[in-house]
Amino acid sequence: MYFDPVPKTRREDLFGREDELRQFQRVLQYTPLIIITGLRRTGKTSFLNVALAESGAPHIRVDLRGLPVNPSRKQIIQKLQKAFNSVQGKWKSRIQRALEKVRGVKVLGAEISLAWEKDQLDLVDLFERIDAWTGKQNSRFIVAFDEFQHIRGDRNVIRILAYIMDNLQHIAVVVTGSEVGLLYDFLKLDSPGSVLYGRHHTEIRMRRFTSDEANEFLRKGFEQVGIQVSEDTLTYAVDKLDGIVGWLTEFGAHCRDCGRANQVVVDETMDLAGRQARDEITRLVAHSKRYGVILNYLANVGTASWSQLKRVLEAHEGRQLPSYVINEVLKRLTKMSIIGHTNNQYQIMDPLLRHGIFREPLPQ
Length: 364
Ligand SMILES: Nc1ncnc2c1ncn2[C@@H]1O[C@H](COP(=O)(O)OP(=O)(O)OP(=O)(O)O)[C@@H](O)[C@H]1O
Ligand SMILES: [Mg+2]
Prior knowledge:
It contains 15 helices and 10 strands. By secondary structure, the chain is an alpha/beta fold. Helix 11 crosses helix 15 (351-359). It starts with 17 loop residues before the first helix and ends in a 5-residue tail after the last helix.
């Protein structure tokens, strides 16, 4: 069902990602690294879930959400442990057998326990065993990290990744990220001298749906839950919610809860989802009041040029600011995928985030 608000896990519930699924399956045969990018709520986790399930390959999915800005090794290992313990039934005991000889790994009944300390658990050894085991199955093991940029404080992770990509042919790494610039900064694929420099990788982007696709998604979704919807409501919803599948789903889920679909429910969804989107970025933008100033302004006016934004910041601070200050603020917001620009016109990427900030400005 399309309007189920949790991340999808089954292909029949995933709308409109056939090309991307085919691409995933094709490149999985040879690429060492697949990068899944997209704004918040564009369906990265859903796509990853379905792509992993459809691949038929043994895999783990490490969910890195909820970690603090600079997570400790212990917190990262705990996430890894959780991922190993959530492996599909048919692979679980075989993986456990492959890993039980690794130093720092204990198999206790049906559960794997990983030691936290660096000198206790050798992660390279762990992945080597997995590689050797998968090689015998004539398959590839997929190690997927959801929201990978969350662990960017730990460069050691990148070294392990480089080792896997260079030496372990039977392991494919998949990462997702909504803060796309930060994700690429962490991977440093384009920086000479970095361990991952120049490595082959494939990016799969979770694009927004076109108006026609969004319309079809809603129409089919309403059919599935047996709710009548008018053309006007569909057009209004597509216009307001844009092609972001998470917001469309949230609208559908609201309609399902209240048993009707009309423009009032679209407006309510915008308010709720807008607040949610605003709350999610509040932590990201908390460490500089300048982010608040820029975003509040953009939420009001829609789009603005670099010089306009410079003037706004200067007016707020009551002094002239050097260009690099403005550049730095705009660069950070862009790297977090909060704003984007074309032809020197900056705007907030997600219309509902804009709505949320418009209704309740950020601290500045
Ligand atoms: N292709 C799709 N078809 C149907 N529903 C989808 C699709 N993609 C995502 N959804 C729905 O949209 C919502 C957001 O999806 P999901 O959590 O997968 O996105 P995300 O990009 O991982 O979001 P976040 O940035 O919050 O991690 C969920 O309710 C999910 O069920
Ligand atoms: Mg997600």
